[in-house]
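User: Here's a chain of 248 residues. Predict its fold as tokens.
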Amino acid sequence: ARPALARRARRWELAGAVAWSSLALGGREPFRRRAVSGLAWWGLVAAMLEWHLGMIESEDGEPRDLGAADALTLARAFLVPVIADNLDTAALTAAAVSDVLDGMAARATVPTRAGRDLEGLVDAAVLAAALRCAHRTGRLSPAVIALELGRITAGFGYTVAVYFALAQAPSETVLGAGRLTTPLRLTGLIAAGRGWRRSADTLLATGSLISILLLAYAMRASHHDDRARPAPETILASLHGAAAPVMA
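Assistant: Prediction complete.
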């Protein structure tokens, strides 16, 4: 148990709830209009954070604290109901900026297992909210929305399969390939928010297609690397039969 970490998480969760409630009570839209659904969403975000507290550690198992990268990820999650309401360009721009800063902050410190998972979940939530609003308001063509949903589904399916079927962490190469076109796709969504449907369709479709191709290539390369890597029992047998100790 890490009580200090838990207390900090609760403070962040409370801050988000207070911020949404204050904006709603002050009559700010869409916070007032989405007072109940917004707070319900933030409750899910808080539950997600609580569930991942045991993973606030490095890949080597070194305990870490919640940091700037985690705060930026949660700030992006806070914006999801705002984006879902009316594809707000300011919220989309803030989400895009926070995504860039999030990555920079994570690379400047020791990345955590929780940070890796939370970032992917929040990014998917932002995109799903934007696509739902774009579909409802006709700001993106159905074909482009279907293409991007297919990309999200493929990435999510890969993550679930690796976690639950193979009991492994997703390949960083595969995850990185999926993120390479994030700026291009977010720019397309911002264009949709501005009402520039043709530009939005072109940008998002291009980003989605490139991302799908990169994901497929990275998954194939990752699978090839796994097959080429010696099995653990083979390595152990070699070490057992060695005449002298081997220093890795």
